[in-house]
Design a protein that fits this description.
CATH class of the largest domain: Alpha Beta
Helix content: 25-40%
Radius of gyration: 21 Å
Strand order of the largest sheet: 7-14-15-11-10-8-9
Largest sheet: 7 strands, parallel
Distance between the termini: 46 Å
Number of domains: 2
Strand content: 15-25%
CATH topology of the largest domain: Rossmann fold
CATH architecture of the largest domain: 3-Layer(aba) Sandwich
């Protein structure tokens, strides 16, 4: 079997609005990825791991766009956290193209054997509807209709499971690398321990320096999101739940879908350490209005204050090395306002903060899907899944 030509699947998908494609390559997916990279009007985002790819696609879905995540089935392990605690709770649908490595009866590498046996059951356990990727060109419209109908009616992901040889070869014609930013700058200033602000003080500055009409502020899982909510609960705020480490990749997808809006991600050291590879993805693809604030108190504070290894990491050097055009260390009152106003990005600011939590800190009273709906209404993101789950 020669396989279906890549354009026979991708062009009908394009007509249905699937313009954002992200993922981690698999040899089975090579023709599709190459065609997307070559095709004008389609965007391919090369993610560091499959969980970040899911979060990035989900950010685009929050902006009302259809998005696709491509991965081999081994990558489902990396993607379980956002699929179960981001997509499911916020009701954000993405199309998953998952290759079946370790297909029983098909010779493959030993590391794929177990996952090949359990992939379908794993998707079922995650409450992800799925069917086989079409083997014939004539079956493509029905497969895409099944996927979009399910996604639009439930707000949940849908998976097409692909066997070896399904897609015919397609050679890449474009330059394989994403466009790099200009030579990055790194501004470092000593931040004496005595001058470390509280997390609350930093978030208060973020709120005072952002407008609900043209900016989106994401608070990462844990106390960043909870303190952001306690300071002021605004319709442009989104409070992450679960999906630890995915705040920045989620913000990346949303900002790529709406580059006219200011995107401010308030991250924590534990989360950033968990998915540090995404810094390279943001450095390559992030826009000028993407601002990444790292609030680093050196602990997993919401789980009892266990130390992270952040004291051993030079985060500004890492972000600089990953291609962020502007990187700086917090340097006192006024620094955050100047940083957010700078139209050179993506930008990264490392802020050492004091440990400590305000007394009687509340949790957001809104369900995550209601927060999604409110933000989508705020910026006119209209789609079939906007009101689902709220």
């Amino acid at each position: 079997m020669s396989g279906i030509k890549a354009d026979r699947f991708l062009e009908p998908a394009r007509e249905l609005g699937f313009h954002i494609w992200t993922g981690v390559p698999c040899s089975y997916l090579k023709p599709l990825i190459n065609y997307v990279i070559d095709a004008e009007g389609l965007t391919y985002i090369s993610s560091a791991n499959e969980g970040d790819a899911v979060a990035t696609a989900s950010g685009a879905a929050l902006a009302g766009l259809r998005a696709v995540v491509m991965m081999q089935n081994s990558g489902l392990g990396n993607a379980i956290s956002p699929l179960s605690s981001l997509n499911w709770v916020f009701r954000l649908p993405v199309l998953l193209l998952v290759t079946l490595r370790g297909d029983p009866g098909v010779p493959d590498e030993p590391q794929h054997e177990l996952m090949g046996k359990v992939t379908g059951a794993l998707l079922d356990t995650l409450d992800i509807a799925w069917q086989w990727f079409p083997q014939r060109e004539s079956d493509i419209p029905a497969a895409l209709e099944s996927a979009t109908t399910h996604m639009d009616s439930t707000g949940l992901p849908f998976a097409l499971l692909m066997r070896k040889g399904t897609i015919a070869e397609y050679a890449l014609r474009s330059a394989p690398d994403p466009v790099a930013h200009a030579e990055p700058s790194c501004v470092r200033a000593a931040q004496p321990e005595a001058d470390q602000p509280s997390r609350q003080a930093v978030l208060e500055q973020v709120v005072s320096q952002t407008s609900a009409s043209d900016s989106i502020v994401i608070g990462s899982t844990g106390y960043n999101g909870r303190e952001l909510y306690a300071i002021e609960d605004r319709p442009n705020h989104l409070y992450m739940v679960g999906s630890m480490g995915c705040a920045a990749s989620f913000g990346l997808g949303l900002s790529l879908a709406r580059p006219d809006l200011h995107m401010v991600v308030c991250d924590g050291d534990g989360g950033l350490l968990m998915r540090m590879g995404n810094l390279a993805t943001i450095g390559a693809y992030g826009g000028v209005r993407f601002k990444h604030l790292l609030l680093d108190n050196g602990t997993h504070e919401s789980t009892g204050g266990q130390a992270t290894v952040s004291r051993h990491v030079d985060f500004t050097a890492v972000a600089h090395g990953c291609g962020y055009p502007h990187v700086e260390q917090y340097s006192g009152t006024g620094a955050i306002g100047r940083f957010l106003a700078r139209l050179r990005g993506p930008g990264f600011m490392h802020i050492h903060t004091r440990a400590g939590v305000p007394p009687d800190l509340p949790r957001p009273s809104h369900r995550p899907a209601s927060v999604k709906q409110r933000l989508m209404r705020q910026f006119g993101f209209d789609c079939a899944w906007r009101d689902l789950g709220a």
